[in-house]
Every structure is written in structure tokens, then in C-alpha cells.
Specification:
Order of helices and strands: EEEHEHHEHHHEEEEEHEHHHEHEE
Strand order of the largest sheet: 6-5-4-3-2-1-14
CATH topology: Metallo-beta-lactamase, Chain A
Number of strands: 14
Radius of gyration: 18 Å
Protein name: MBL fold metallo-hydrolase
Helix content: 25-40%
InterPro entries: AtsA-like_MBL-fold, Metallo-B-lactamas, RibonucZ/Hydroxyglut_hydro
Number of domains: 1
Bound molecules: zinc ion
Strand content: 25-35%
Shape: globular
Keywords: Endonuclease, Hydrolase, Nuclease
Pfam families: Lactamase_B
């Protein structure tokens, strides 16, 4: 079994501060693949990585900040049907339900509404292409699934012949729920932090994993540019410094820390060296198109 992580995009957002696409990662198992988050540019990045929609098995959304889901519509519409070597069979899009803690949260979209409203917003195009190009009905292919949060800290959200996916809640206030995901395969395990402050729950989810893909923030970037106190407070309370990401990797005993979803610009060496203060294992600062094979745990 060949299992690979591909970092399709590594930028935080919603902001364009360079050429890097927005946050999105692929887990590839033989020919099949799964996407974790749908940041800006993920559709092109997936195509450039050689991923064909016909091999897409499912999408996983860590939380509903726009920089994690903005290109879900583009990915669905650009990978649909035989004319684009796209999907012709159904697949799940798995993500957060509505936020029960927020005032008026029941009126705001969860994953089900996000998918349904995407499809209804493009109903004209979808209808035409079903009639005109004999594409399958996209409504029947996309199965939105909202994650129910049970009482136990780590819980299963998906399983098929390739992957067993578990999740835990992480700390990304004021967003709720925000999830980290763990993909276990016959060749090893890959964990995605999603967006989170330093999280003990994530340490437990990631325990003994081969690869931990962890977000990181460079607070100095924002401080030096006089971002507002509220903005700085959000960054400090709901994201993780690279040194703390290294702490999480060390506490979990993972083999390889891959830093992605980098908020604030800094040289790759800076991200690496900050994480290396607290983690002695392998550290990578991800870029779009980087591939990490589980058997060798190195970039190629
Ligand atoms: Zn976020």
C-alpha cells in the first residue's frame, strides 16, 4: 500500500500574502485520495499534483472559517463527471454542524447548508450540464455529513477500506466546533491539527502518529505591522506558535512534524528553527505540492 500526504496549499487566510495557495491537504492511498480542507487554490493544486476527481473518496472540513472551505464549490464543479475525469459516484463531505453556542447559530450554516447552498447557487449550471453533457446529477453525488460530537474525547467519523478517521475537538475560539483529524492507514498515520491553540486533546489524538500536520502563527509579523489588539488577541488565543507546535509534536511522540497553515510571513528557516527549539524529530515547513510518503517520511 502506498500512502502519501500532499500539502496542496499552506497559507492561512482570508488574505493573500504571497503565492502560496490556501490551506488544503490530500491523503493519497494507492490511487484514491481524500482532501482535508478546501482553501483558495486547492482545485488547481490538486490537478497539478495529478489528483483526478474520479479517485476522490471524500472531503473533511476541520472548521467553517472561510479560508478552509472557500474553494469547496470550485473543487466540486471542476471535478464533476467524465468530461473532466471527475467523480461519477457518491462521496461524503464531512464537517462541522451548526454552532450551538453562538447567538443565532441555528440560523447560520453548518456543513449541510454549505453544500446545499453551493449546489442551489449553481443550480442553473448543474442542470444544464446534466442535460447538455450527460453528467451525473451532482446533487446525488455529494453527501454532506455533519459530525456529531459525543462525550468521549476521540471519536470515529469515517471508515472505508483505505482509512480509519478519528477526530477530536480543538481550541479555536470563538469558532465551535473546530476539529483535528487522524487518518490511520495500513502504512501509518497522519494527523491534521486544523486551526487550534496549543491543544492537549490534539496531543492525545496524535499520540505515536507518523506525521503531524500542524498549523503555526508568527505573531511578530502582525505585531510589527500594527494590527489591532482584537486581531492580535484572536491570533494569540486561537493559533499556535511554531515552538508550541514542536511541543505538541514532542509530547505526542510523532516522527515528523509538518508545519502548514502558516499565518504571518517568515522565512522557512525561521519556522523550522522555532519548532526545533522544542522538537528533535524531523521537521518540514510545507509548501504547495510537497509530497511525504509514509514509508520514507521525507519530501520528494
Ligand atoms: Zn480558523
Amino acid at each position: 500500500m502506498n500512502v502519501e500526504l500532499i500539502t496542496l496549499g499552506t497559507a492561512a487566510g482570508p488574505a493573500i500574502r504571497g503565492t502560496e495557495p490556501g490551506i488544503s491537504s490530500a491523503v493519497v492511498v494507492n490511487d484514491d485520495f481524500y482532501l482535508i480542507d478546501f482553501g483558495l487554490g486547492c482545485t488547481r493544486a490538486a490537478a497539478e499534483a495529478g489528483l483526478k476527481g474520479r479517485n476522490f473518496k471524500g472531503g473533511f472540513i476541520t472548521h467553517l472559517h472561510s479560508d478552509h472551505v472557500v474553494e469547496l464549490p470550485g473543487f466540486l464543479l471542476w471535478n464533476w463527471g467524465k468530461p473532466v475525469e471527475g467523480f461519477t459516484e457518491s462521496f461524503p463531505i464531512i464537517g462541522p454542524a451548526k454552532d450551538p453556542h453562538r447567538d443565532g447559530g441555528e440560523q447560520l450554516a453548518g456543513t449541510h447548508d454549505l453544500v446545499a447552498n453551493t449546489l442551489s447557487g449553481f443550480a442553473y449550471d448543474i442542470d444544464i450540464r446534466i442535460q447538455d453533457e450527460a453528467r451525473p446529477d451532482l446533487h446525488a453525488l455529494v453527501q454532506a455529513r455533519e459530525i456529531e460530537v459525543p462525550n468521549e474525547p476521540i471519536f470515529e467519523i469515517y471508515q472505508d477500506d483505505n482509512v480509519h478517521v478519528t477526530a477530536t475537538l480543538v481550541e479555536h475560539p470563538p469558532v465551535f466546533p473546530a476539529f483535528a483529524f487522524r487518518f490511520d492507514t495500513a502504512a501509518g498515520s497522519i494527523v491534521f491539527s486544523g486551526d487550534t491553540a496549543k491543544s492537549q486533546a490534539l496531543v492525545e489524538l496524535a499520540r505515536g502518529a507518523d506525521v503531524l500536520v500542524h498549523e503555526a502563527v508568527n505573531l511578530d509579523f502582525y505585531r510589527e505591522r500594527n494590527f489591532s489588539g482584537a486581531f492580535l488577541n484572536h491570533q494569540a488565543c486561537s493559533h499556535t506558535s511554531p515552538e508550541d507546535a514542536g511541543d505538541v509534536a514532542a509530547a505526542a511522540g510523532v516522527q515528523h512534524l509538518v508545519l502548514s497553515h502558516l499565518a504571518g510571513v517568515a522565512p522557512a528557516q525561521w519556522w523550522h528553527d522555532e519548532a526545533a527549539k522544542s522538537f528533535t524529530g524531523q521537521i518540514s515547513v510545507a509548501r504547495s505540492g510537497n509530497r511525504y510518503a509514509l514509508s520514507q517520511l521525507s519530501v520528494r
